[in-house]
Amino acid sequence: MNMTRRTALASLGAALAAPAFVRRANAAEVTLKLHCMLPAPAPMNSVFFAQWISDIETASEGGIKIDLYPSMQLGGKPPQLADQVRQGICDITWTLPVYTPDRFPVAETLALPYMVTNAEKTSVVMHKLMDEFGQDEYRGTKTLAFHTHDGGKIHTREGLIQTADDLKGLKLRAPNQATGKMLENMGAETVFFPVTDMVVGLSNGVIDGCCLPYEVVPAFKLQELTKYTSAPAPAGRGLYANTFSLLMNERAYEGMPDDLRKAIDDHSGIGLSERIGKQFDAFEAKGKEVVVNNGNTIGEIAAEEIESWRELAAPVHDEWVQKLNDRGLDGAAILARANELLDAGQAS
How far apart (Å, rounded) are the C-alpha atoms in residues 239 and 279? Predict the structure, then answer.
């Protein structure tokens, strides 16, 4: 075989072995910074974002590169993430509206007690609710997705929670303002801080327990700091769920060529919200497995007990309707629509 033929075959082999996309000729390459509060091993980073980033890079034929910065590596605190993406400190972020209470009230609505079925269905509900009522909440950003986690559980260092009396005097990290008020109505002493501070709070005795879904437990090894988990009986709504927003800097999005914006558009929207929710249901199952394998005790809060807790949550819902009204929104309509969508999803 002559050298020219050998060289041509070698080049062909290299081309066939190359990745599915290559850097496109005559196209500007865009590098985006994705800022996340959770540590790198957390499934949101290691599973979801890893795949989503790969999907976008492939769809854009290498025109978009996304660099992930976990554990707040670009600086600041988790409550600052929504402002960071608006200001261009990062290009994409994933944030919790409840970390800046009352600032994004429509996005917070599904963080009220008993406004969750599972993560997949409730994430679709949240996206629809934001489309219908929350379009003005994230001005200056391109909204990519909205979602929730599965219903939260109560993790404690000593003893199961099976009645409201078991909560009296207990120091708990509340997951958000609204759920904290309900727990206080049952006699608990609540504090609120981001999940990233959970290890310190449990280790130094500031709190006796916390409200969290299973999915986040392994990332912070919380199964080693709590020994008991109390979960509502299945089939009804969950105790609570926090809400999340996946956001992109509007200038960064608008500054990209049409085909690169299309790669973002094709991997965002209600389909992505549903996909994240489904992923979080899978994360929940894996997190529970870690808790069980650690030998922790899991107990069920009876459905009748949960119904009595829901009565204590009614004033919290009423107060939220008034907050929405004070912002010029129709609070009753927003809450009614959320419940309608949740009930329809539960029946499907």
Answer: 20
**What is the chain's pLDDT, residue by residue, as a tens digit (348 residues)?**
444 444 443 443 444 444 444 445 444 489 999 999 999 999 999 999 999 999 999 999 999 999 999 999 999 999 999 999 999 999 999 999 999 999 999 999 999 999 999 999 999 999 999 999 999 999 989 999 999 999 999 999 999 999 999 999 999 999 999 999 999 999 999 998 888 888 899 999 899 999 999 999 998 899 999 999 999 988 779 999 999 999 999 999 999 999 999 999 999 999 999 999 999 999 999 999 999 999 999 999 999 999 999 998 999 999 999 999 999 999 999 999 999 999 997 655
How far is Cα of residue 86 from the mean position of the Cα atoms in its chain?
A: 19
Domain with CATH 3.40.190.170 in the chain: 30-148+242-285, 153-240+294-316
Prediction pTM value? 0.89
Identify the CATH class of 153-240+294-316: alpha beta
CATH of the domain spanning 30-148+242-285, picked from 3.30.479.30, 2.40.160.20, 3.40.190.170, 3.30.2110.10: 3.40.190.170
